[in-house]
Amino acid sequence: MKKLTVLTVLPLLCLFSGMLYAQKPTITGRLVTTQQAPLTYATITLQKAADSSFVSAILSDTTGRFAITAPAAGSYVLKVSTMGYKTHKTAPFTVSPEKPGHDHGDILISQDSRSLGEVSVTAMRPTLIQKADRMVLNVEGTAMASGNSAYTVLGRAPGVFIDQQGNIQLNGRPGVTVMLDGKLTYLSAADLRNLLESMPAENIKNIEIITNPSAKYDAEGASGILNINLKKNDLQGINGSISAGYIYNGRQHAWNTGATLNFKKGRFNSFANLDAARRVGGREATFTRIFYSPLNTTYFDQTAVGNFASVGPPRVRLGSDYSIDKNHLIGFVAGYNRNSAKSDFLTETLIGAAPNNPGQFIDADNVLENTYRNFTTNLHYAGKLDTAGSSLSADLDYVSIANRGASWTSNYFTNLLVPEPVITEFLYSDTPNDFDIYSGKIDYTRALSKSAKFETGGRISSVVTAADSKFYFNNGGLTPDPKRSNEFNYRENIYAAYINFQGTLSPKLNVQAGLRAEQTDSRGESPTTGQVTDRSYLNLFPSVFLQHKVTPNYDINYSYSRRLQRPNYGNLNPFIFYRDPYTYIEGNPYLRPQYAHSLSVTQVFKKTYNLVLSYQLTNDIISELLRIDPTTNTTIYYNGNVNTGHDVSLSGNGPIKIAKNWDTSNTLYFAYTDLNLENGNGPQRNRQFTYMAQSNHTVGLLKDIRMELNLLYRGPGVSGLYRVKAMNRVDLGFKKSFLNKKLDLSVNAPDIFKSYRLRFDSTINGNINNFDQYFRSRTIGASLRYNFSKGQKVDIRKSSAVEEVNRT
């Protein structure tokens, strides 16, 4: 009751405090550089004109604007300071009851000539800035960025967790959209990981962590958006880096090499990324199942080893922008990737009517070869329509993805009770599939005042995918198996539009509210079976954000949003994927989207520490389910919609400085999950209190050697029907720079104790499934990166359809 009273009264206090401050003098303005670019995150200090005594301070926003409140009428000056620029003081000005506000307009800030050339920034700790709808992690010029990849830095952002298979979670929840510079990447999870691993973190300016995105963003993504903003190349001429690395996981060797090139001349600003790699991985697993039926009980014990390796021509990603004038820009980004992968899944299975008393042994080898091709292109325009902040932007995207895969399965059955010949079964499958994605969007922003703006826009996307999966018996020749072969065609069109408002109710109270509408029309068709599934649905996605700046060092933010998660296209395909004689994976053409209502209260202390209380209600949860046939000892896995899920969590993030050269970034997470599951096995309930602790340490050692130690512990949790056991890992790394910090040598050893195991189980109608898998996350690796530049030196400042591709 006490907590409910606090949560009820607190918003009223926020509004009341806003009314109290509404009449206090407000000083506004905009910071710009000599190149007319906005000066972001600079410190503006309000001082008394008489004695320069401190009154208050604030940071400029991403547009260079600021609004600071004077406590009373009087004469004041503003002091502006930031790294790489000269400290600037305004002339004295007066505010009074007759003139309660003062607008400085554009304040020109000159760069500091002493900052020209090489500047060494030695900040150990990244800074956090909490806004109404997002948290901004500034990593530019910090130890987190130096010598690391973009993928590593993303995994260490507050609340971000990446599992062994590269799946990203935000605050313990899956379903994350990752963007680059606010643009959709159109890459699958695996290819996005490859791109970020080849990208030096020194290229990153900041990472925006948007747990409840506004109406401007696609509604896809149940847990939010991670937007990686890259540093804009301001260096005339050529600069970039080249790198090479080697990794060994105890069984497989891997290597990577790449280059990044930036070129700027006149109005053109271009880049090119080139990387090639041999990427490997695998797992060792045990699966234990017990099947109960009225006639008998069957014990199923299986060991498995999986391996994969992929290699291909260099991946290319390039782009160029052209400034028509200082207010209008056009450009393009394109990428091409092709690789060939080979994987195997080798199992040995014992089946019997009693524990440790098998009657049959099955040796099953499944080998898969696949060629993957991905082509993406983006055309974009951005324009400033006036000096008040109105803007217009547009994007056109096209993505083509093709997979050409085939698998060979060899099964050997041995009777352990009666001597008889080994029975063999050989199978072959051909599984090509293609995706074509077209998308266009437009966004318009209208500045209503210096502290308010209105946004509107729309987006249209079309996805066409085709798969023709053919299955054959391969005993002396290919004989088609019509029961497991299937052709599947799918088309989906999405039409979206939104409105969004941002404004200031008072100097201490900001609000943002919006509404997004998305119409989805889809058709799934299987010519093989004649099955057709048509869907057409319209959804509304409201969002509301309230930011209350209680004091200069304490903010409270309230947010609500509704979002959805659409099914993966492959999961809609009813094709049956064969893993071994007793295990199948099949698609579900009747799979529906899941919907989530998310609420959160975020407290931010000293612009660095945050405490987040959140609640999420999810309907029609998409979850992996399993269907068990005890008469044949067969388990069939598929994705289905279950009832509802409730998730309450409390998380805290913040740095702790242990010593002068020893910084830490820490996350604590507590959650209670309650899932109500309705499927073919009857109603079930899966509940669990879970917790997570993560601590990243950066330690400066002798001779400029930097050590990084990452500690992670995750308590037991739940995922659909499964209960997941606790896991932990320890990662260790060392970095050293040479040649005036142009050459970086890194040595990394993730999961040094081999303790990060994925163990989970489920019990359905008395039937037991226990899984224990290790994904070879323990590796040892070394990498070299050389940074170069040739051109004029400048100062160093501190500071639209990804959902469709993720579903492929």
Explain how this protein is built.
With 808 residues, the protein is mainly β. The protein folds into 2 domains: 2-115, Immunoglobulin-like; 127-793 and 800-806, TonB-dependent receptor, beta-barrel domain (Maltoporin, Chain A, Beta Barrel), CATH 2.40.170. It contains 5 helices and 48 strands. The strands form 5 sheets. It has a 31-stranded mixed beta sheet that branches. A hairpin with a 2-residue loop joins strand 19 (253-265) and strand 20. The longest helix is centred in the N-terminal third of the chain and has 20 residues, at 2-21. The model is unreliable at 1-23, 113-122 and 792-802 (pLDDT under 50).
How many domains, as an integer?
A: 2
Strand content: over 45%
Count of DSSP-assigned helices: 5
What would the principal axes of the Cα set say about the shape? Answer: globular
CATH topology of the largest domain: Maltoporin, Chain A
Strand-pairing-aware structural class = mainly beta
Corresponding CATH architecture of the largest domain: Beta Barrel
- Give the radius of gyration: 29 Å
Helix content: under 10%
Q: What do the pLDDT scores average to? A: 84
Distance from N terminus to C terminus (CA atoms, Å) equals 47 Å
Please summarize the sheet with the most strands: 31 strands, mixed
Which regions contain 5 or more consecutive residues with pLDDT less than 50?
A: 1-23, 113-122, 792-802
CATH class value of the largest domain: Mainly Beta
What is the fourth-level CATH superfamily of the largest domain? TonB-dependent receptor, beta-barrel domain
Total count of strands: 48
Domain Outer membrane protein beta-barrel: 384-786
Signal peptide: 1-22
Protein name: Outer membrane receptor proteins, mostly Fe transport
Main location: membrane
